[in-house]
Each structure stands twice: as structure tokens, then as C-alpha cells.
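quick one if you have a minute, typing this from the bus. theres a chain ive been looking at and ive put its sequence and its fold in C-alpha cell form underneath. please have a look and point out which stretches look like helix strand or loop to you. anything you notice is useful, everything is just below.

***
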Amino acid sequence: MKRILFTLAASFLCLSTFAQIEDELTPEEKAYRDSIANLNETNAAIEKSQKAYNAGIELFNQKKYEGAINKFSESISADPNFTPAYYNKAIAENKALKFKEAVKTMDVLLQKKPGYAKGYFQRGWAYQGMKEYLSAEKDYLKSIELDPKNPLAYYNFGTLKFMQKDYESAIEQFTKVIELRPEDAYAYNDRGSCYRMLEKYAQAVKDYEEAARKNANLAFVLNNIGTTKTRMKLYDEALKAFNRALSVDAKFYLAYNNRGVTEMQMERYSDAVNDFTKAIEINSSYAPAYSNRSGAYFKNGEYEKAKKDADKAISLDKNLADAYVNRANAKEMLRDMEGACEDWHKARELGSELAKNYHSTNCSN
């Protein structure tokens, strides 16, 4: 770049001379003069574009996505043919959850580079964020067609299928990721989650444990082992998994909550209260922990505390059916049957089968 800039400086000097003898220039000399001017303009624009682009990369690495988007836009304005700026602008827009903007950016890029596999991948990600799943699927498939060795395309396609509850198809995609990248702990974890949703718990645990072997520092993987073991009624093994998760991340409130749920199954209600309390201390906005502690208090015969926690859970999440069930149960023991029936009815509307049974049995309508 320094050599080019040196040449440009010399060219500017030549232009000053040409300007003084304009009438004496031949057509060939004028054409040369104009080509030098265009070259200077072009290189100045490229330099401006590159400077803005580099600033955008720096901001992106700092996770300052809005600033990065602005810099990438400046880069594109200076040099509309600089395709990396479009690509990175779309990535930043996806990171900033500006999915519609990312689609528009990738539309322009794919007009310039119609066979660009990564462009289809990024646009698919944007469509997925917009919940336009058919468009996302089309782009992921196009990306895979153009670059069948890119594990990220299969991975995102797998997450898309998981979100659509097409767990068998998701398993196929995560399996492809594992084939291409055998050390990918996340792919094993996510395939395990597919198996868990299909109630194939032994296969789920196998994948989760492989994920933990690939990366022992992923607390959420150990938590997944624990929740699956709880479903299998292997409570002691579940507790060990939660303990491992908390040894990796002492602030992992979900592991405290889930360990409390397992302790409830084991009728260790005081231990459960302690774990739900710990989850609440870490995340005071996590409604399920209040609801679960309400249930534990109820089992301990502490009905006022149970009602208070259920009240708090509902204030945080008005659609949490279990919280209405727990509050109804507490109200029943506090001799407020009218209030209990109202809560069972609400939980029934939210889809709770347990509330449906309680309401049918104990309430007149």
C-alpha cells in the first residue's frame, strides 16, 4: 500500500502541470490524465473503506455490534464492491438480533457472489432468528450444497430442526457435525437433547457423557446428565451430576434448582428448600425456583410460605401453570377453597393435567 501511495503522490504532481497547459494536451494525454485521477480516487476510496472495515472488526471483537455495523456500512459506502464488509455487517446484525437487516445485507452480497456458501449460511441464521423456518431451511440446504464440509451449516440446520420439534432430522444433522468435527462437545450435547425429547434416555445420557469427556468444563452438559438421570429415577446418580456441574460453576442456578427437584423426588424436602433458595439468591427473577420452593414448603406443612412463594412466582411469570397449582394447594390447606378453585381453574387453562384433576374433584364448576 505504501508503494501505491508514493506513486499517487507523484501522479498528483503531474496533474498540476497538466492543469496549467490544458489547451496543449492531446486526447491521449487527457485520457492518461483522467485515468490517473480515477486511480487516485479509487485508491483513496479503498483506503477509506479498509480503515472503516478494520475499525468495524475491532468493535465486533469487543462485542460492540451497533458500532461495528456502522463501520461496516461506512466501508461499503466507500467501496460498494468490498464484499467482506457485507458479510461481516450481516454477522454483526445477526449478533445484534437485527435479523431483517441481516437478510437485506446478505441479499445484496449474494447478488454479487451468488455461489457464496457462507452467505447463504448467514442469511439462513437471520431467517431462523425471524422464525421464518422454511426460508432458513432453504438457505441452510443451499449452503450445504455449496460447501458440504462446513460443520456450522449442519449444526445450525440441526438447531432449526430441534426448534421445529423434528428431533429425528435434528439427530441426522448433529451426527453429520460429529462426523466432520469429532471433538465437538456441543454437537454431542445437542444430539443428546434430541434423544431426551424422544424419551430415549439411555442414548441421551451416552451423548451427554461423551460431551463431558470432550469438554469437562461445560456445566450445562453435566446438568443435562442430571435432569435425564432424574427422569430415569436414578436419583443418586442425578445428584452426582448436579454436584459436578456446581463444582464447575458455583453460580449455575439451574443446577441448584434441578438438584432441588431431584431431592423433592427423594422426599428430602428441607434439602430441596435449601437448593431452591440458593437458586433464588443467584437469580431472583427465576420464577420456577419460587414455584418449586412453594411445593417444598407445602410438603413441609409450611402453607403460608408456600402461598407467598407461589404469589412471587406468578408475579414473575403469569403463565407458569405449576405456580397456580402450588398456590391452589396452599390455599386449600389455608381453608380458602374459593381461591384454590380459581387457581386450579387458571392452571387448567394453561394446560396442567394435574390442575384439571384437582379442579374436577374439588370444585363445582
In short: The chain has a mean pLDDT of 89. The two ends are 82 Å apart (CA to CA).
